[in-house]
Write a structure and sequence with these properties.
The complex is a heterodimer of chains A (292) and B (175). Chain A is α/β, with parallel strands linked by helices and 292 residues long. Chain A is built from seven helices and 17 strands. In chain A, the strands form six sheets. A five-stranded parallel sheet of chain A has the order 8-15-9-10-11, with helices on one face. The chains are: A alpha/beta (292), B alpha/beta (175). At the A-B interface, helix 2 and helix 4 of A face helix 2 of B.
């Protein structure tokens, strides 16, 4: 979005393909507290909406299509999205990352039937019910605290003793009397017929198993970069993150730039992604200027 | 202009179950980011398809319908035709996926009179076949106990049903 704002303001007439999850990860974030300029917390959705409107104001075009393939000609890239092919001289990849899934088949089976990846969206359906949150990062802590508004009990299940989340988020969760902790445990199997009725947990140290009754399982175990469709055009590392040159957003291919969580192994923050988006737009402007 | 119809627990039956057209219902809520982000897709599609109806229901204000259809996760799109739920799409799915689902449903549930009659009659024949399968053990018994008046009537009824089925199948071939 920031790349769109900057490049639209620079009259580069950007077209944004919004892809499968318009607005990205932020749209499922209940509260954003750490984005500079937000005196009061704002929902991720509202923040995203502001970015979008700001980009629109400067003439950014949006397309709901999903990019399926990118091919490279002489200095021209062809972006294939559905039955559309768009030609461009510069491409900014800002596809971000998508939620990681539990490595068990029962997660897929119960998706939407008790398993959810979005506490903000689905917490409402678990009034006075018991739920599990899987994960130990900021998202997991925030989800757990948020879910106590609805659920009668929230159990955080995390595979390691160490919680990756910021201390401030951990404290908020630890202070909440509705939250219980199963650490270091993993979800080995999700139980139920049509709907989730519980989970079989396994202690990662002792190997002991335990059945926990619950009706909802919220998965917040991190994200993976969405780079599959760009693998022919740019180099990625073994985890799929796009490789950019140090200190800038240039990729292994001239004319292709990457910013945000799609190339960020370290920080994964909205403000970092926004900063890189700005860099990408300015680098595109320079790149096109030199070409002319 | 979007032609998406905002419905409620009260109007669900009238707008969806009694709808003449196959219908999609978008279960959403104002606090669901992904729901808000994908809603323009439905606005856009609603302007394109004549023989298909798009509805949306706010689950926060209308929990009854969501509970009835066991919605536990949104955005959730359910598809209805002839008063029944026939399919669903879970999550913020891309436009192309919704489009192909809508087209598939339109093909299965045509809205021109003959097409529609054909679908209803085919389903009637199919159900008849399944029901007579279920009746088989009773029919066997009836053939052994022909003197029993009830079983005797059952045999006659079965023969009438078969004739009706044949006639409908004939009609289907002509359509």
């Amino acid at each position: 979005m920031t790349a769109a704002i900057y490049s639209a303001r620079a009259d580069l007439s950007p077209l944004v393909f919004e892809g499968p999850g318009p607005g990205g990860q932020l749209t499922v974030s209940h509260e954003v507290e750490n984005y500079p300029g937000l005196e009061q917390p704002l929902s991720g959705m509202e923040l995203m909406d502001r970015f979008r409107k700001q980009a629109e104001r400067f003439g950014t075009r949006f397309d709901l299509g999903v990019v399926e393939h990118v091919s490279k000609g002489n200095d021209i890239f062809k972006v294939h999205a559905g039955n559309k092919i768009v030609e461009t001289r510069a491409l900014i990849i800002a596809t971000g990352a998508e939620a990681r899934h539990l490595p068990i088949p029962s997660e897929k089976k119960f998706y939407g039937k008790g398993v959810s990846g979005c506490a903000t969206c689905d917490g409402f359906f678990y009034k006075d019910k018991k739920v599990i949150v899987v994960g130990g990062g900021n998202a997991a802590m925030q989800d757990a605290v948020f879910l106590t508004r609805f659920a009668s009990k929230v159990t955080v299940v995390h595979r390691r003793e160490y919680l990756r989340a910021d201390p401030i988020e951990v404290q908020k969760a630890k202070r909440n009397s509705k939250i219980e902790w199963m650490i270091p445990w993993i979800v080995e199997e999700i139980l139920g017929n049509d709907l989730v009725t519980g989970a079989r947990l396994k202690n990662t140290e002792s190997g002991k198993t335990f059945q926990l009754e619950c009706e909802g399982i919220f998965v917040a175990i991190g994200h993976e970069p969405k780079t599959e469709v760009f693998k022919d055009v740019v180099e990625t590392d073994e985890k799929g993150f796009i490789l950019v040159r140090p200190g800038c957003t240039r990729t292994s291919t001239d004319g292709v730039f990457a910013c945000g969580d799609v190339c960020d192994r370290e920080y994964k923050q909205a403000v970092v992604a926004a900063g890189q988006g700005c860099m990408a737009a300015m680098e595109v402007e320079r790149y096109l200027g030199i070409k002319e | 202009m979007s032609k998406v119809v905002e419905i409620t627990d009260q109007t669900f039956e009238e707008e969806v179950l009694k709808s003449e057209l196959p219908t999609e219902v978008d279960f959403w809520a104002p606090w669901c980011g992904p729901c808000i982000m994908v809603s323009p897709i439905y606005d856009k599609l609603s302007e394109e398809y004549e023989n298909f109806k798009f509805c949306k229901i706010n689950v926060d204000e209308n929990p009854e319908t969501a509970t009835k259809y066991q919605v536990m996760s949104i955005p959730m799109q359910m598809f209805f035709a002839d008063g029944e739920k026939i399919d669903e799409l879970l999550g913020a799915v891309p436009e192309q996926m919704i489009r192909s689902k809508v087209q598939e449903v339109i093909q299965r549930f045509p809205t021109d009179e003959k097409g529609r009659l054909k679908v209803i009659l085919s389903s009637w024949v199919e159900h008849n076949k399944q029901d007579s399968e279920k009746l088989r053990k009773w029919i066997q018994k009836a053939q052994e106990l022909k003197n029993d008046t009830i079983y005797n009537s059952l045999l006659k009824a079965k023969s009438e049903m078969e004739k009706a089925n044949e006639k409908v199948s004939q009609l289907l071939r002509e359509l």
